[in-house]
Hints:
By secondary structure, the chain is α+β, with helices and mostly antiparallel strands. About 20% of the residues lie in helices and about 30% in strands.
Amino acid sequence: LPKEHTHMETDQYVLWRGRDTSISKDKLSSVYSHIIKTCNKTESSVFTSFFTPVDERLEMKILNDEYVPIMETICNYLNMDMHGFQYWTQIYDGGHSAHNHAGYPCAVCFVHFIEPIGSFFYFVGPNKEKIYPKQEKGDIIAFDPHQMHGIDASHGNQRMTIAGNITSYGN
């Protein structure tokens, strides 16, 4: 595991923070099994449905009842009208280099920490430092699509997140 991280006292890059641990274990288990069986592992040791067409993603079919209210809550809090959203599942023990979602049509991004195993998700600060927000099982954070973020490798300790983008009218 990476060296101990200091969490930010405040979530300066987090636009909204919530928590949801109510998604049934059976549904999550189905999504997990489906991703492992159907998605190729990337070179950075990530199983992801990101490259699967949205209308073919199992999670978009069986988890929408849980995610629609979450997306509505985020949009209401941020005072924006939701046009739509999409999300994908990532199961990994590898890392994902720093990137942003500015090239995609989205107003806000989110990550739902389904099975975190520590603090591996980070934002890139103004001096290129890694800033690790609080990330416990069930935590959901929303952030600006221009914000650089990444994931450190956990080297053999598999974790699961659901990440996505919310579109608003005008983007």
